[in-house]
Structure formats: C-alpha cells, structure tokens
User: Fold RNase H type-1 domain-containing protein from Hirundo rustica rustica.
Amino acid sequence: MGEPVIHDCLETIEATYSSRPDLKDTALEDAETWFTDESSYVISGRRHAGYAVTKSKRVIESGPLPTNTSAQKAEIIALIRALELAKGKDINIYTDSRYAFGAVQLTELSRRKEDC
Assistant:
C-alpha cells in the first residue's frame, strides 16, 4: 500500500458540485473553434450512423460507424474524436448534444469522487 492521500472531503465535495472554475461561458481567445455532430437514420429496420468533427466551413474528420450504433453513442464518439484530434491545442469544442455534454460532466464528477 502506498502513502495515504491527504485531502479535505468538504473541499472535494464543494469542488465536485459547484461550477468548475476553469469552465467559462465565453470562448477561449486565439483558439480554434470546432463542432461535433452525428447522423443517425433507420433503413429497413437497421440503424445507420456517422459522426463529424468540423470547423465552420471545413470537415476535419468524419466517418461511418458500425450498424446499429445509437445516436447517443455517435455523439460521444464525435466528441472523443474531437478531443483526440485537438490534443495539445487551445480549442473551443461545441456540441448540440446534451447527452454528450452530460457524459463529460459525469466523468469529471466520478474522477473527483475517487479522491474522497
């Protein structure tokens, strides 16, 4: 067993359930702005889906996803690909998916709770 982690649980709880100080409601200056989206439709009872990561007038990456991929999963895949492609860059990423945005928040909350 390693050394115990010393922390203040009340401070961790406050940080977990309050707004993140590093998240702003304004875009980063001097950063690229990217968008994520998905497409999902059913033909003959089979769901088809794809994803895209774009700038305002250019597709950065897009692709088909396996048959029967849900719209929610496609949104998560699009967001993950944007994060992977943006590694090391200052970037603003926009999604119209409440599901994907919520998944990112839950992942962060889960990570913080592991410390308590």
